[in-house]
Design a protein that fits this description.
It holds the Pfam family Amidase. Helix 4 runs antiparallel to helix 5. By secondary structure, the protein is of the alpha/beta class. Helix content is 38%, strand content 13%. The termini are far apart. The protein contains 18 helices and 13 strands.
Length: 485
């Protein structure tokens, strides 16, 4: 066959779509949810092909990065089902998340073939009573549960010496940008996997920085919702007063799509009853406005979150000055150098609801925190965590019955919130707080947001002089998600 004839055949094959699988696989990297849905509609891509692509990337990258603990063995079946629903124009098949794979942090329960272990061997083989509330909503939206993400074991609540991103079942997670830098925690695997294109969208949970930190250092977007805006039922708890579930994605728009799918009342979680008043009935997508910054009053709290601001030669100072200038150019009013009067006390403020979670499991190797402590002592070599200990578990167990003390702690946290961020925002009529989020060089704003159950969002801002990503964090009072978006 002549060269010209062969070229003609190849051109025909390309025109008739015989190589769409190859070209589609190439375009999937960095694709947004809108990109993927458009590809579905134009028949350039199927959910099955999308899942196959991610499975291939997981096999290639996960042995190094350790973002996934488990892959859902039913993921290809669920993808095929989504394709059939789309083909038949079934009800719900036009939802933004329909046919889109999503990764769940390993403390979010699924009633399927996946384990829910918080990264620990102690819960391997446990049986949950039902899907977590947010999983019910994701399935209703047509999302495909692709697997469970690695995480700091027991949300880093086991020990003060446990490295961020260390998972008993999977080992130390790694930052895709700088392997030695660490992925932060405790939703480390969710951040790693989105950053490395092993999945486009994921869910994390936050008690104090568990979404915001790994999102920032993995150069993705993370939304920590107002406590109660999303259900925590079926989520292994740390602090019901602070725990919240939120999206971790590459773009704000994708994160908003996920947030729209998972917010709402759940009779298994009383906190959602109080937070219903904050939910936007028409959804959060409507607040994605290009000119949304115009006229917004943003308070910049430099101390102690911006300690490097006097170093005019630093990469971070130059980058953040550029970003803050951009905010002003887009119409925001930046009110600089405000200080929160009790910030040091807030950042140093320190029970556990783990017993309640273990008790409601249908089957589990451990039933109480005491059982868990005993399991770790017996099998610490299995988890390779002997050197990290379990001082936080033991401290929580020692507080059993100390209800009066715990009430005093909660009352103090409420007071700190009222006299801290709430006073600052109301006194100066701020729409939001804005500050750099670079954990390696600045104090952690997440604690300020955590103790009051306040929302926050972090967006990628740049990279430091060794290539580690950092973000800018916006935060505010309860229910401020529309303004943050």
């Amino acid at each position: 066959m002549s060269t010209n004839s062969l070229l003609s055949i190849l051109v025909c094959l390309l025109l008739y779509g015989f190589f769409t699988k190859i070209t589609t696989a190439f375009s999937i990297k960095e694709a947004t949810t809108d990109d993927l849905q458009l590809a579905f509609q134009q028949k350039h891509l199927t959910s099955r092909q999308l899942v196959q692509f991610y499975l291939k990337e997981i096999r290639r990258l996960n042995p190094l990065l350790r973002g996934f603990i488990e892959v859902n063995p039913d993921s290809l079946y669920l993808a095929h089902k989504a394709d059939q629903e789309r083909k038949a124009n079934a009800q719900g098949s036009l939802h933004t998340l329909h046919g889109i794979p999503i990764l769940l942090r390993d403390n979010i329960a699924t009633k399927d073939k996946l384990n829910t272990t918080t990264g620990s061997f102690a819960l391997l083989g446990s049986v949950v009573p039902r899907d977590a509330g947010v999983v019910v909503r994701l399935r209703k939206a047509g999302a495909i549960i692709l697997g469970k993400a690695s995480m700091s074991e027991w949300a880093a609540f086991r020990s003060t010496f446990l490295p961020r991103g260390f998972c008993g079942r999977k080992g130390q997670g790694r930052n895709p940008y700088v392997l030695s830098a660490g992925p932060c925690g405790s939703s480390s695997g969710s951040g790693i996997s989105v950053a490395a294109n092993m999945v486009a969208v994921s869910l994390g949970t936050e008690t104090d920085g568990y979404i915001l930190c790994p999102s920032s250092v993995n150069s993705i977007v993370g939304i920590k919702p107002t406590v109660g805006l999303t259900s925590r039922s079926g989520v292994v708890p740390i602090s019901p007063r602070q725990d919240t579930v939120g999206p971790m994605c590459r773009t704000v728009r994708d994160a908003v799509y996920v947030l729209d799918a998972i917010v709402g009342f759940d009779h298994y979680d009383d906190a959602t009853r109080a937070a219903v008043k904050f939910i936007s009935e028409a959804g959060y997508k409507q607040f994605l406005k290009p000119n949304g910054l115009k006229g917004k009053r943003l308070g910049m709290v430099r101390s102690p979150f911006f300690k490097f601001s006097n170093d005019e030669g630093s990469v971070l100072t130059r980058v953040f000055k550029h970003h803050f200038d951009t905010l002003r150019q887009k119409g925001a009013i930046l009110i600089d150098h405000w200080e929160i009067s009790n910030i040091d006390e807030i950042l140093n403020a320190t029970g556990s609801a783990i017993n309640a979670y273990l008790k409601q499991l249908l089957k589990s190797p451990v039933r109480t925190l005491a059982d868990l402590i005993a399991f770790n002592k017996k099998f610490s070599n299995l988890e390779k965590t002997k050197e990290y200990g379990q001082d936080l578990f033991e401290a929580a167990e020692s507080l059993k019955g100390a209800d009066k003390l715990l009430k005093l702690v909660v009352a103090n946290l409420n007071k700190l919130s009222r006299n801290g961020l709430e006073e600052l925002v109301r006194k100066h009529k701020l729409d939001a707080l804005v500050t750099p989020y670079d954990l390696r060089r600045s104090s952690d704003i997440s604690t300020l947001l955590a103790i009051g159950g306040y929302p926050g969002i972090t967006v990628p801002a740049g990279y430091d002089n060794v290539g580690v990503p950092f973000g800018i964090c916006f935060g505010g009072l309860k229910g401020i998600e529309p303004k943050l978006i």
